Amino acid sequence: MRSGIDAPSGIMDLMFINLFKYNQKNNYQLFNLGMAPFSNVGKSKFSFVNEKVVNLIYKYGDAFYNFKGLRLYKEKYVNHWSSKYFVYRKNNSLIFTMLQLLSVVNKKRK
Protein backbone atom coordinates (compact mmCIF):
# COMPACT_ATOMS: atom_id res chain seq x y z
CA MET A 1 0.00 0.00 0.00
CA ARG A 2 1.28 3.43 -0.89
CA SER A 3 0.10 6.91 -0.03
CA GLY A 4 1.20 10.34 -1.17
CA ILE A 5 2.64 13.03 1.05
CA ASP A 6 -0.65 14.96 0.72
CA ALA A 7 -2.64 12.05 2.20
CA PRO A 8 -4.35 12.87 5.51
CA SER A 9 -2.82 11.38 8.63
CA GLY A 10 -4.41 8.03 9.52
CA ILE A 11 -5.83 7.38 6.04
CA MET A 12 -4.36 3.87 5.90
CA ASP A 13 -5.88 3.01 9.28
CA LEU A 14 -9.25 4.29 8.08
CA MET A 15 -9.02 2.14 4.96
CA PHE A 16 -8.09 -0.97 6.94
CA ILE A 17 -10.84 -0.48 9.51
CA ASN A 18 -13.42 -0.08 6.75
CA LEU A 19 -12.10 -3.20 5.01
CA PHE A 20 -12.29 -5.14 8.29
CA LYS A 21 -15.89 -3.99 8.84
CA TYR A 22 -16.86 -4.89 5.27
CA ASN A 23 -15.30 -8.35 5.56
CA GLN A 24 -16.86 -8.98 8.96
CA LYS A 25 -20.28 -7.95 7.61
CA ASN A 26 -19.79 -10.42 4.74
CA ASN A 27 -18.79 -13.27 7.10
CA TYR A 28 -15.10 -13.48 6.20
CA GLN A 29 -13.07 -15.26 8.86
CA LEU A 30 -9.57 -14.06 7.93
CA PHE A 31 -7.91 -10.93 6.62
CA ASN A 32 -4.37 -11.20 5.26
CA LEU A 33 -2.24 -8.09 5.66
CA GLY A 34 0.64 -9.69 3.79
CA MET A 35 4.16 -10.28 4.95
CA ALA A 36 6.67 -8.50 7.14
CA PRO A 37 9.78 -9.31 5.08
CA PHE A 38 13.04 -10.18 6.84
CA SER A 39 11.59 -9.66 10.34
CA ASN A 40 13.03 -12.93 11.66
CA VAL A 41 16.08 -13.35 9.44
CA GLY A 42 19.39 -13.63 11.27
CA LYS A 43 18.01 -13.93 14.81
CA SER A 44 19.06 -17.53 15.41
CA LYS A 45 22.46 -18.29 16.91
CA PHE A 46 22.84 -20.68 13.95
CA SER A 47 22.32 -17.92 11.35
CA PHE A 48 24.91 -17.49 8.63
CA VAL A 49 26.87 -14.23 8.39
CA ASN A 50 24.79 -13.11 5.40
CA GLU A 51 21.61 -13.58 7.42
CA LYS A 52 23.03 -11.55 10.30
CA VAL A 53 23.83 -8.72 7.86
CA VAL A 54 20.25 -8.86 6.54
CA ASN A 55 19.05 -8.60 10.15
CA LEU A 56 21.12 -5.42 10.56
CA ILE A 57 19.60 -4.01 7.36
CA TYR A 58 16.15 -4.91 8.70
CA LYS A 59 16.86 -3.09 11.98
CA TYR A 60 18.77 -0.06 10.71
CA GLY A 61 18.21 0.16 6.95
CA ASP A 62 15.35 2.65 6.87
CA ALA A 63 17.09 4.50 4.03
CA PHE A 64 16.54 1.44 1.82
CA TYR A 65 13.08 0.39 2.99
CA ASN A 66 11.40 0.54 6.37
CA PHE A 67 10.94 -3.22 6.93
CA LYS A 68 10.86 -2.82 10.70
CA GLY A 69 8.28 -0.03 10.52
CA LEU A 70 6.09 -2.14 8.25
CA ARG A 71 6.10 -4.96 10.80
CA LEU A 72 5.35 -2.54 13.66
CA TYR A 73 2.46 -1.01 11.71
CA LYS A 74 0.92 -4.38 10.91
CA GLU A 75 1.27 -5.54 14.53
CA LYS A 76 -1.54 -3.12 15.43
CA TYR A 77 -3.92 -5.45 13.61
CA VAL A 78 -2.25 -8.87 13.46
CA ASN A 79 -2.93 -11.48 16.12
CA HIS A 80 -1.28 -14.38 14.26
CA TRP A 81 1.86 -14.45 12.12
CA SER A 82 2.59 -17.31 9.70
CA SER A 83 6.17 -18.04 8.70
CA LYS A 84 7.11 -17.58 5.06
CA TYR A 85 10.49 -18.31 3.59
CA PHE A 86 12.63 -16.41 1.12
CA VAL A 87 14.61 -18.80 -1.07
CA TYR A 88 17.90 -17.96 -2.72
CA ARG A 89 20.59 -20.00 -4.42
CA LYS A 90 23.36 -21.27 -2.21
CA ASN A 91 26.11 -19.75 -4.33
CA ASN A 92 24.37 -16.37 -4.62
CA SER A 93 24.77 -13.66 -2.07
CA LEU A 94 21.72 -13.22 0.16
CA ILE A 95 22.56 -9.54 0.45
CA PHE A 96 22.66 -9.17 -3.37
CA THR A 97 19.32 -11.01 -3.59
CA MET A 98 17.88 -8.70 -0.93
CA LEU A 99 19.05 -5.65 -2.88
CA GLN A 100 17.34 -7.03 -5.98
CA LEU A 101 14.14 -7.42 -3.97
CA LEU A 102 14.47 -3.85 -2.70
CA SER A 103 14.80 -2.56 -6.26
CA VAL A 104 11.49 -4.24 -7.15
CA VAL A 105 9.70 -3.00 -3.99
CA ASN A 106 10.94 0.58 -4.42
CA LYS A 107 10.38 0.77 -8.17
CA LYS A 108 8.60 3.98 -9.16
CA ARG A 109 5.05 3.40 -10.32
CA LYS A 110 3.71 5.25 -13.36
What can you tell me about this protein's structure?
The protein has helices at 11-25, 49-60, 67-74, 94-105. The protein contains four helices and no strands. The chain has a domain at 39-110. 7% of the residues are buried. Helix content is 43%, strand content 0%. It is mainly α and 110 residues long.
What is the strand and helix layout of this fold?
Elements: H1 11-25, H2 49-60, H3 67-74, H4 94-105
Helix content: 40-55%
Please compute the radius of gyration using only Cα atoms: 17 Å
Number of helices: 4
Number of strands: 0
Average predicted confidence as pLDDT: 85
One letter per element, helices H and strands E, the order comes to HHHH
Strand share of the residues?
Answer: under 5%
Task: Catalogue the unreliable spans.
Answer: none
Summarize this structure briefly.
With 110 residues, the protein is mainly alpha-helical. The protein has helices at 11-25, 49-60, 67-74, 94-105.
Could you name the key traits of this structure?
4 helices, mainly alpha, 110 residues
